Each structure stands twice: as structure tokens, then as C-alpha cells.
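Researcher: Good morning. I'm working through a list of sequences from a screen, and I'd like to move beyond sequence-only analysis. For each chain I'm collecting a predicted structure so we can compare shapes side by side. This is the next one on the list. No need for commentary yet; just the structure.
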Amino acid sequence: MSQQIQNINLNNNKSMEKERKFSSIEFDLLENGLDFIDNSVKSILESKKASDLKYSILHISSGIELVLKEILRNEHWSLIFENVDKADYSRLISGDFQSVTFDKIIERLVKIANIEISNQNRKHISTIKKKRNKIEHFEFKDNDLAIKSNVSKALSSIIEIINENIKIDDYSNTSQKLYKDILKKSAKFNEFTSTINSRIGEDLALLNKRNIVLIDCPDCFQHTLPLDGSLTCLFCGYSDTSENIASAFAINILDYNSYYAYKYGGEDPVKSCPDCKTETLIFKDNLVFCINCDRSWDEGDLNLCDDCQEYFEGDNDIGICSGCWSRKLEEYD
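Model: Good morning. C-alpha cells for this chain:
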């Protein structure tokens, strides 16, 4: 055999040995979830093109869902079947089963496993899920600052959930290493948000001096959208019509779901403004504000008309707005 052929065979053998090192891939449920999250954060921190940000959303969504399934599995393995009545351990091991949906994971964690998930954390991970669904099933448009902020908040939420519900030291060395890497990378996200907020700090301070109300941006979730007529978030640059911002605020910030409201009952949090008469009035905590005309009220400053079911400003002992009262008087004339 010539020396050239021997060298070729030697190189082929080395190549095959290198391939064999990766021929067996094995992740348990938690490792799989943490690996998705770790790769998501790495992609977004080192992003060089738009698709890196897209895959970051896909990966962190998958990772969060798998971690939540692990917490659910710790309660009982049957709970990660969509239909618990059809739970079969042999099918679980083989992977031949319909897994529980994301909404049911949250529902079972809270109602069966008695896991506390704050409204804030639920909102942040649900937002990632919504973005992931849009990427997989429809066209997708977003900006890099908003995506990074979304991932940062979802990352903080899942870290908090892990810390409260998983004893990471009881898991594999791989899981422990992945989790430590995720914690290190999350610190870089905190630096990112701090840097942006420092950059816009003077603008925020000026708005505060002018008593301009700031609300949570429905795209990046930072408290940086001023009601000053600009309709533009200072953090991520998100901007839209007042009606669209009001709708997005209801869905993303207040977690309003029109389908569930129609099916199970629930009131649309967007109302008609008593001043500008557009459907852009929002109730949040003890504050009421209009995204269109930038006015704001304390919740007790507005009353609901018993007749037309619209809000009006000022005290009125008879419980109806001036317009309805005028019409009633005309009817009696």
C-alpha cells in the first residue's frame, strides 16, 4: 500500500472517530430545556444577523416550556400528557405521546402542583410564547432592542421560577454547568438594559419634571413609553397609532385575550376616552390614562354612565353622563 493511500485511510479513520464522539446525543428533560435557553442567550448576545434573533426567540420559548414540564413532572409524570387519562409510562419513555400544551402547563403548575407564578413572570414568558407562535406560523416583524428586552425579562422570569422550584444541585453535572452559564450570560443582559436606560436617563428625567406619564411599552416591556403625543418608546423605538398601542397594551401588558373573554366572559380593558372619544382609555392599577390624548386620571375621578356605559369625568349623583341626562330632559319636553 502506497504512503499516500495509508495517509488517506489514516485521515478517514480520524474523521470517523471524531464523528463517533457525537454519534450519541442524550439530554434529560431539564438538560434539554437549559441547553435551549443557553443557546438562545448565546445567539442573542453574539447576534450578527436577524435570523440569530429569530432563533433566539424560538429556542428560549422551547427551553422555558421544557423547564416548566420538568417542574410538572416532579409533581407526577402523567401531568405532562395532554390527556392524563391516557398517560402511559412506556409511551412517555418512547416519546410517543401528545404532550401537554403551554397553557395547560401553567394551569396545572398553579392548580395541581401548587406552584406560585407571579403575574409578571407569567406575562413575560407568555409574551415569548406569542412571539414564537408568530414566527412559526406567520410573518414576523420586530426590532432588535425589543427582542433583547423580551428575552431578558423572560430569562429573569424563568431563573426566578427555577430558583424557587428546582434544586439544581440534585441534577446532573451537565444541568448544573448549563445553569451556571445561563446565570453568567443573564448578567450581560442586565448590563445591556442598564446601558440603554442610562442613555435615555436625561430624557426620562425631563419627562418626569414635566409630569408626563410613562407607561410600559407593549413591545419591549420597559417603562419608557411617554404619554406626550410622540407615541414612541424611548427604549426600543416602538411606535404605532394610538388605537393599535392601546390594543397591544391590553394584550401584552394586561394579558387580555379576546377569545377567552368571548368564550368565558371578561371585559375589554380598552374603553372610550371621555375627552377625545377614541377607544384608547386604559385602566391599570389606580391610574386611568388615554393613549390618544395623553390625559390621565386617578381611578376615582371617572364614573361609568348607567345609561350609555361610557366613562365621564366629574361627580354626578344621578349616575349618568351629561349627554344622556340632556337626552332624557329632551324626551320629557
